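Dear colleagues,

I hope this message finds you well. In preparation for our joint manuscript, I am sending the Dihydrolipoyl dehydrogenase (Psychrosphaera saromensis) sequence together with its predicted structure, so that both groups work from identical material. I would be grateful if you could confirm receipt.
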Amino acid sequence: MSNDIKTQVVVLGAGPGGYSAAYRAADLGLDVVLVEKRATLGGVCLNVGCIPSKALLHVAKVIDDAKDMASHGVTFGAPKIDLDKIRSWKDSVVAQLTNGLDGMSKMRKVKVVNGFGKFTGSNTLVVNGADGDTTITFDNAIIAAGSEPVNLPFIPEDDRVIDSTGALELKDIPGEMLVLGGGIIGLEMGTVYAALGSKVSVVEFLDQLVPAADKDLVQVYSKYNKDRFNIMLSTKVVAVEAKKDGLYVTFEGKKAPAEPVRYDKILVAVGRKPNGNLMDATKAGVTVDERGFINVDNQLRTNVNHIFAIGDVVGQPMLAHKAVHEAHVAAEVISGQKHFFEPQAIPSIAYTDPEMAWVGITEKEAKEQGLKVESAKFPWAASGRAIASARTEGFTKLIFDKETHRILGGAIVGINAGEMLGEIGLAIEMGADAEDIALTIHAHPTLNESIGLAAEMYEGSITDLP
Ligand code: FAD
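The corresponding structure tokens are as follows:
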């Protein structure tokens, strides 16, 4: 069966980028078709990324918090883990959000076509779905095809080797688990499995976990987690042998054990690769680089005037909120508005325990770019709220332009760091200087107060910290 559809805008991929672009375009009065190969909308983020991982991290947090309470007078029994129920809780969270997108698509009259889409020309796309092929003729296209996990070729195919999607399935709780890759996704999933009872090791090729973050932030995280994870930095996996009784891993590098080590499961979390090469974009004249990224300008336009690309497929940082903002710009440009994607700051958050969060420039980047910056760091050991919460390991750091004292970046490590980061992002976008932040009255006692206090430290009005 063949169907033909004509539309002003076709959006390929219904992740945070794709559905946000489709909805904004529809809200601006355009006729929109949204193509998605998955059975549900929401892309990686809602189905197998941001959302299910946070549902499981919530479970992990409650378990860990309950354990911590013993030191201040409340002891709970050992947690009884019902994996089926935890899985259903996670699935129900995902379903609530993906079903919500179905409703939002209907409300906006966005036509959803289910199936795998491939370009056949500069204004045509064919979607291969359960009911056969649908040919879509479009005036404009937005490619929002996202990314997928990177595999390592030397690791054998085995049920016990999983990626982030496999880890979120939560089939069992392995006794010994190796997380290969010390980035955000690996550490978040490691946090979940450690709370559920796995003994988790993390191996990272570089000399720092979460390499994009400043070292001081990561040091706090690593110190807090020294008993929770066996962290092997500057070390790499060179071979994995699948045997009946487990996966035997050979390491090389600074912390490499002398003999192969047995694990019940390996989570490979070494990064994600863009899906730019999978939909015959070149047949529409769109240039895709050898890694699968699609180059765009600051209006998200590809080298073909009426074809745009957004989200993970256009490059780093591969984050849902970046995709959403790019989506809005692309849809607005198609509708005739003169908008640009030129953010001052894109927040990054590791929802680990403690959380690590940063926005704007890091000290590492400032150094690389030769910028003259100064920073102020407020230690949470001096925060009443952190002390009352028995979580004083964190700090709040603000980075200022040395001459203008304008804020250029900020980083927080500690509980709820991710929730606190928004204020710093806003300050950067608004061009606030240290005085603006210091003179803003922050409520006491909050962790947020530490942002105001860091600015006061920079201004020199606080000098007597412990
Ligand atoms: P995607 O979400 O990847 O969506 C692309 C969609 O396109 C997919 O549904 C795919 O099926 C579809 N598609 C691709 N090609 C075709 C085709 N040819 N035809 C039809 N459909 C197609 N980001 C955050 O900001 N915060 C987080 O906390 C966070 N946590 C994460 C946790 C994990 C475990 C993972 C894996 C990722 C996480 N991310 C997080 C990253 C985030 O999920 C991505 O940055 C985001 O989903 C990118 O959105 P996107 O719209 O570009 O692409």
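For the figure legend, we might mention the following. The mean pLDDT is 97. Residues 12-18, 35-38, 43-45, 49-50, 53, 116-117, 144-147, 164, 185, 275, 278-279, 311-312, 318-321, 323, 351 surround flavin-adenine dinucleotide (CB under 6 Å).

With kind regards,
E.M.
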